[in-house]
Amino acid sequence: MEGGQWLWPPVEVGHVHVIPGLTAPGTETRVVTLSLKPLVVEVENFLSTEEAEHIISRARPHMEKSGVALKDVDIGKAAKEFRTSSQYFLPTTRDPMLEKVDARVMHLTRIPITHAEYIQVLKYDVGEHYSAHHDFFDPSDYAGGGVLGGGGSYRKAQGLASNRLATVFFYLNDVPSGGETG
Question: What is the rounded (10 degree) CA torsion for 170, 176, 178, 181?
Fold first, then answer.
């Protein structure tokens, strides 16, 4: 237990946990420890090809340039200095396929799905990027509330956003090179 929240015990790099029946009855899903600090695990074959294609097709018509929440020290800089992707926050409610994905995420992370954001679908064209950043924030860094690129502020300045406890990535396609996240 770390901070009162259950986490997958990392044991050591390369350690494998097997979860029976996570993706379908009679299947086994492997959770492989890639890093101890920070804890990074790879969940093999979590999404089916059909689920990945469904996410892409649902998000495609709604994709817009990604917004950027700027720290006070960065206000006045162009959004493209930090992020050039497109995104859409895909609701998972009233979609039986995505509700099943949510249930698996909840089972995997042991965190109630009510604590999750919608699926943030990101698209990077060749040469696009998101500069190095953390998936957590110090609210005092955003007192000025600088937000570029539309797309809804994280509302950090008002204290209405929460830090992420965990980030679950779904890679929806494969590329010959690039695409990695550190």
Answer: 30
